Amino acid sequence: MTAILGISAFYHDSAAALVVDGEIVAAAQEERFSRKKHDDRFPTHAVEFCLSEGGLTPDQLDYVGFYDKPLTTFERLLETWLAFVPAGYRSFRKGIPVWLKQKLHLPKELRRGLGGDYSGRFVFTDHHESHAASAFFPSPFEEAAILTLDGVGEWSTSCLGVGRDNAIELMKEIRFPHSLGLLYSAFTYYTGFRVNSGEYKVMGLAPYGSPIYKDRLLEHVIDLKEDGSFRMDMSYFNYCQGLTMTSERFHQLFEGPPRAPESDLTQREMDLAASVQAVSEEIMLRMARYAYEKTGQKNLVMAGGVALNCVGNGRILREGPFENVWIQPAAGDAGGALGTAQFIWHQLLKRPRTLTAPDMQQSSQLGPSYSGDEIERVLASAGAKFAVAEDDNQLCEQVAELIADENVVGWFQGRMEFGPRALGARSILGDARSTKMQSVMNLKIKFRESFRPFAPIVLREFVDEYFQMRKDEDSPYMLLVAPVQEERRLPM
Ligand SMILES: [Fe+2]
Fold first, then answer.
1. How far is the CA of 334 from the centre of ligand 1 (A)?
2. Quick one: average pLDDT of 423-431?
3. 418: closest CA among 359, 346, 477?
4. What separation in Å is there between the alpha carbon of 435 and the centre of ligand 1?
5. Is there a contact between 479 and 331 (Cβ–Cβ < 8 Å)?
6. What is the pLDDT of residue 87?
7. DSSP per residue, 205-256
8. Which is it for the CA torsion 474, 476, 479, 482, positive or negative?
9. 309: CA distance to ligand 1 center in Å?
């Protein structure tokens, strides 16, 4: 038996994943245990959960992988800071202590995190190799083109590669500071949301606006080539040298300062969101076309934070040249924990891959689960009113009735999802036919803005009846957005 633990930590979205003899036994993000969103500390609880799920102790692990090469990242930071002396001093002063104290001594930190009980090797895989591995190895494809689309990992911000059987090969990259993820984050910051977590709000806001700034963006800020590669005019940004994302010049170009975080959203933010979304979709489509030309593959797999842009992904599937597209559900850095473990197993140990349908990701239900007894105990101790259903039929009938009566239902079953999307294991359900449901649901969840979208669920055999998708097209991970069929649309 070979047991490999993958760890992602110390940047954002810490996570752990356990792969035993090539099988994904468990994977979870630390925030789900610590209740601290995007928790970046050593994933103590996630590691503990993964090991207990595998019935292992740290000394029984054969390898521990870390999803990033900290020394290369440190070199990038130093070079960037030096290039911007003296302007970079403030960000240098803020960043350097955590490097000197923690990130430069990762083996020690990791060993300590594992309770000092692990004496084996630590393997540090490239950031984009980890993302690429998480995209290709669990996918259902024997061969595929690979795109990683990210903010930044070490030097790369996005990579093109190809996966065949049990090996991946990365061939081209776009390097820092030119980054699709950071461009999106710059608009996230500018529209008053939190960088590294509010990006999906920008995507959710985009449909309410018109892309009126798209041309301005393409003319001044980003030089986009036919093959999807691009260079950004860094005088519009401040993330290399400062503590903000955008520069004064950016604010002049878009005629105003960034929106103050708690202030009201206006049409302007919606138009800005629509504009950066339109440019991102354009870049993603061009990159996909180039990946197809370059690799000659008919399948595409993707990971990296930008691969959570399900609207862009949907366009790649519909308008791009690939026959099939599969995206790692934990596409952000949490998924790097899974990627590094699988990279060690397939790429470094050269173990073969066995393909299973529909994929190897097990619906991404890789987290903890709780028995009926455990759930009842918790409900009772919280003084909750509850009833136990006799069987699944009774439960489903009751819940269907509640939904049809425009109630909002919290649904909790089986193992928790790995990745940011609720996929039916920890979900909030409502009636998609109700015109008020979106805002009712958002209001019921504290602190949620009313524009935030929910995803519809439909049985696979009806997918093309309701959405502009091919017959029986799988979309199990909420990573492909498609327009609703004209005749199914309800006037609002
Ligand atoms: Fe990343």
1. 8
2. 94
3. 477
4. 37
5. yes
6. 65
7. HGGGS--TTHHHIIIIIEEE-TTS-EEE-GGGB-TTTSSSSB-HHHHHHTTS
8. positive
9. 14
Average pLDDT over residues 276-280: 97
What distance in angstroms lies between residue 67's CA and the mean position of ligand 1's atoms? 9
- Lowest pLDDT segment from 233-242, 279-288, 410-419, 435-444: 435-444
* E-state strands within 103-214: 121-124, 143-153, 156-164, 167-175
Question: 38 - beta bridge partners?
Answer: none
Structural domains of the chain, with CATH? 3-139+329-364 (3.30.420.40), 173-325 (3.30.420.40), 372-488 (3.90.870.20)
C-alpha 126 – ligand 1 centre gap (Å):
10
Q: pLDDT tens, 31-90?
A: 999 999 999 999 999 999 999 999 999 999 999 999 998 877 777 777 776 776 666 666
Check whether 451 has a pLDDT greater than 90.
no
CA of 155 to the centre of ligand 1 (A): 11
Mean pLDDT of 149-178: 92
By percentage, how much of the chain surpasses pLDDT 90? Answer: 79
Distance 157 CA to ligand 1 centre (A): 8
Phi, psi of 171 (to 5 degrees): -120, -25
What's the CA-to-centroid distance between 80 and ligand 1, angstroms?
19
Distance of CA 477 to the CA centre of its chain: 11
**128 CA → ligand 1 middle, Å:** 7
Cα–ligand 1 centroid distance for 123 (angstroms): 17
CA torsion angle 430 436 442 445 (round to 10): -60
Q: What is the mean pLDDT of residues 414-432?
A: 95
State in Å: Cα 68 to ligand 1 middle.
Answer: 9
Find the 338 Cα to ligand 1 centroid distance in Å: 13
> So what's the pLDDT on residue 443?
82
